[in-house]
C-alpha cells in the first residue's frame, strides 16, 4: 500500500492531517493512526501490527485486526492505493 497521489498530508503536533485534494476533505488521525500513516509504504501490514502492539501495549491479535480495518477504511476512502 502507498498514499494516493491526490493526497497531501502534514504532521501537526501529535497528529497527522490528511487532505484529499480531489474532494477537499480533511481528516486528522490520533497518535496510532498518525504512526500508521507515516509508516505506510515503508513496511507491510504484519509489521505495522507488531509496531502498534509494542508501542501502544495492545495484544498483537487486536492490533492486527485494527490495522487491517484502518487500512481497509483508508483504501475505501481513496486515500491509499496498491503499490506498483
3D architecture notes:
This protein has one domain. The chain has helices at 31-39, 45-56, 60-76; strands spanning 2-3, 7-12, 15-20, 25-29, 80-81. Helix 2 packs across helix 3 (60-76). The protein has a three-stranded antiparallel beta sheet. A two-stranded antiparallel ribbon has the order 1-5. The longest helix is centred in the C-terminal third of the chain and has 17 residues, at 60-76. It is globular. The mean pLDDT is 95. The protein contains three helices and five strands, in the order ββββαααβ. The relative contact order is 0.21. It has 84 residues and is of the alpha+beta class.
Which helices and strands occur, and which strands form pairs?
Layout: E1 2-3, E2 7-12, E3 15-20, E4 25-29, H1 31-39, H2 45-56, H3 60-76, E5 80-81
Antiparallel strand pairs: 1-5, 2-3, 3-4
Helix pairs in contact: 2-3
